[in-house]
Structures are given as C-alpha cells and as structure tokens.
Q: What sequence folds into this?
C-alpha cells in the first residue's frame, strides 16, 4: 500500500513540477517583452517565459527570473518579488544550491507577511519546507509543512494538500515514525 502511495505521489509531484505550458510561443512572448512597458504585466510575462525554459535551458530561465526580480524591485511590487523567488528557487534546488534557495524562501516569507499576501505566504511556507527537505533537515521541513496545512485546508486546495501530506509521509518515514507516515499517506490519497 505504501509503495503504491509513494509512486502516486511521485507521479503527481512530477506533473506539478513542470511549469512549461504547451502551446505557448516563446518568440511571441519575447516580442511582447520588447514592446511592453515596465509594469507588473511585464513581470508576469518574464516569469512565464522563464518557465518555458526551466526544464530545457535553466540558465535562460534564470536570466528571465532575475529580470522579473529586478523589475519587481524597481516597481516596488512585492508579489512579483515573491513570484520571482518561487520560480528562481526551483532552479536553485535542482542545481543543489539549497542554502541559497532557503535564504530566498525565508525572504519571501518576510515579504509576504509584511505585505499581507496570504496566498503567497502559504506558498512560501511550502517552499521553505521543501528547501529544508532538500537539505535533509527533516524535522525543520516537517515543521514548515505543518504550518502550511491549516492554511491549505482553509482554502480547500486539494492538490496542494495532497502534495504536502505526501511530503509529510516521506519525511516521517525518513524520521522512523511509520504510524505518522501512514496517516499522512492516507490523507494524501484522500485529497488526491
């Protein structure tokens, strides 16, 4: 049963990881960037374009994410800064730069909290937990995921709940707590 749950969670997690949208034309997005004024829509376009490169040309994705971060700073656009961090740290994690990803995710938490950006705060909690999980600091990872759970339950985000429960299952297995792991595996399946 646990093996089936873990395979299911890996499939769900892998499908959620790729942010590339099929059918988007990168050339069209680049043309939009050249003609668009420096505003919040341009930040969103930079991030979207970066996502198209994340899995195939991560260095290019990083350039677009960094441009989005710089423009967000210039515009004093905290939501854009957090979105930049969310996307950029995904690439950092793949590259094994966990300390840098953790530092940025903690920064995203502070920004979201100070500006009352509840949804982005919840995502930053999950990203912070993931950073600790990548660093193999399982107690810290579990603590951060547990902080996110009530927020996810409140908004009824079943997919994110399923993923967080699945990650908690994995963490508690690694921590040698099979009863807790099984409980979270059941919760994950229920939400999936």
A:
């Amino acid at each position: 049963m646990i093996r089936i749950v873990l395979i299911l969670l890996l499939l769900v997690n892998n499908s959620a990881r790729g942010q590339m949208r099929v059918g988007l034309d990168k050339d069209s997005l680049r043309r939009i960037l050249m003609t668009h004024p420096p505003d919040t829509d341009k930040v969103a376009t930079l991030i979207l374009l970066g996502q198209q490169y994340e899995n195939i040309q991560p260095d290019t994705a990083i350039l677009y994410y960094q441009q989005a971060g710089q423009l967000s700073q210039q515009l004093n656009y905290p939501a854009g800064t957090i979105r930049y961090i969310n996307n950029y740290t995904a690439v950092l994690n793949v590259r094994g730069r966990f300390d840098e990803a953790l530092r940025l995710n903690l920064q995203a938490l502070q920004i979201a909290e100070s500006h009352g950006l509840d949804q982005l705060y919840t995502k930053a909690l999950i990203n912070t937990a993931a950073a600790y999980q990548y660093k193999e600091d399982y107690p810290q990872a579990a603590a951060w995921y547990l902080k996110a759970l009530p927020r996810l339950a409140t908004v009824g985000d079943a997919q994110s709940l399923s993923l967080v429960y699945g990650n908690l299952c994995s963490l508690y297995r690694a921590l040698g707590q099979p009863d807790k792991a099984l409980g979270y595996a059941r919760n994950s399946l229920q939400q999936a």
User: Anything to note?
Assistant: The chain is about 80% helix and 0% strand. Residues 1-18 have pLDDT under 50 and may be disordered. Residues 58-75 form the longest helix (18 residues).
